[in-house]
Amino acid sequence: MDSIQKCKLLILLTFITSTVQGQLYTAISFRNGLYKIENVFDSNFKKALGSIGQNAWNANHLDLSSNALSKIDSSDLSQFANLKVLNLSLNVFSETVDLSQLQQLQTLDLNNNYIQRVRVGRSVQNLFAVNNNITGVECVNNAITGKKLNLANNKINWLRDIGSTCRNGVEELNLELNDIDEINFDDLYESRDTLKILNLAYNFIFNMKMSGNFVFTSLNTLDLSFNKIAFMSEVLNVAQKANTINLKNNKLVLIDSGLRLTAVTNLDMRGNEFQCKTLETYLGNHKNHVARPAETCDSKQQQKGGYCCENLNAPFADRLIALKRREQSLFIPRDAQKNREECERENSERQNRVKHILAQHRTQIDQRVFHEQEKVKLSSRKIELERVLAEKEGGIDSLKELLRSTASSLSLPNVSAEDTQKAMVDIVEYFERRNQEEQRKQSKAIQDVESSQQKIEKLLEDKAILDKQTADADKALKAANDTLVELTAKHDALSKFLAAQQAS
User: Fold this and answer.
1) Residue 276: CA atoms inside 13 Å, Cβ hemisphere, count?
2) Nearest residue to 86 via CA among 56, 108, 115
3) What keyword terms does UniProt attach to this protein (predicted)?
4) Residue 121: helix, strand or coil by DSSP?
5) pLDDT tens-digit profile of 270-294?
6) What DSSP string describes 129-194?
7) Are the C-beta atoms of 274 and 253 separated by less than 8 Å?
8) Helices within 1-105 (DSSP H only)
9) Dihedral angle at the C-alpha atoms of 78, 84, 90, 93, nearest 10 degrees?
10) Phi and psi at residue 402, in whole multiples of 5°?
């Protein structure tokens, strides 16, 4: 906050300064119970809070932003019994921030820290925690409806990482730039009538699912842009009452024939890889979803309704083949260059978005506080690097021991585990030789099997011929037997006739 802003906002100025261990803090009181404390560090934090004195019970808004605090909990703020707004942005908090005991707190700002988990109390309605490392949020006994949660640029993996009481009755949920790869809309069932804005852009979502049969009745905006979704499934009918759905820059190929988004007034599907037939069918049922402005298509593509598409006989099979080729692109320089460019482009888009959000929430910090923050960050980074180094060294020792025991069991001469690269090369060459030998044995076995199979087939052919000849012989024998029986009968009849003639 610069001097001009202070002059505009300042009504009753209580200017308290104190030096603790050479660190100067300043507490400023504005009207309507707003207090701001500047130049605060862990070492002078309690003194700085104490400087507000008996007025703490009357404070409803406490601004501790742009300081160098690395730890805080509810007990530190126990004297602020009526606190409704707490700004802790632009500090250096890490790990867990637990403020669940602040029973009156309604708005909490944790933007631009290094927090991993957050616990808030029953009355929190607005939680802003952009640009952290958050993997989980818990709202203790919170039955508030109309909650607004902004958790952009964090480390959330699933909607379930946000506690059920946080998700229930939520009105705005911003999870842009997290690590989500699958969405289950059932996790937002309790917010089906309150949810207005759901932002899931710039994640890694490839699958959307739900087992329930419901619609977000109040939804205005659903943003799924810059993800990895390949199939516009019938699941998206959950957002059929929304005004705006953004599916830009995914991997969309097919559209479910049961998808009906006729009430959606603004749909963006540009930057995808549609099959022309499925796109044409969809646009036939949704004539108001023409792309504006139209996409620019390359020579292999067609344009339908302003979108680019390709004629694909087996869309998912074609895409699967393309993905397999991408996996093997390390061995195909031409494809590797193309895929690398695509990967770099997607990563650049994500990084640009991160920079935009960081700039959007940036605030000027006192130079001395900035240096103190940098010291805390560097100290934390040093501890983390030392931990990683210890793990790596342990891994290297384990690898050396494994190489040593493996070389010994294989009786490989002149293999030293200290020279890990040479040891690994020798062991790999050993197994490659074994593999080649096994492949030769397998080839010989396959040839033997094929030879045996050919002999069996020849014997089966001979058997078929013999079976036919036997059948023909049996048929001829039967005919001969029938003739013999017939001749025997005639002989007997003739004998009787001659006997009768002789008798007469």
Assistant:
1) 12
2) 108
3) Coiled coil, Signal
4) coil
5) 999 999 999 999 999 999 999 989 9
6) --SS---EEEETT---SSEEEE--SS---SGGGB-HHHHTTEEEEE-TTS---EEEGGGGGGGTTT
7) yes
8) 3-9, 45-50
9) 40
10) -65, -45
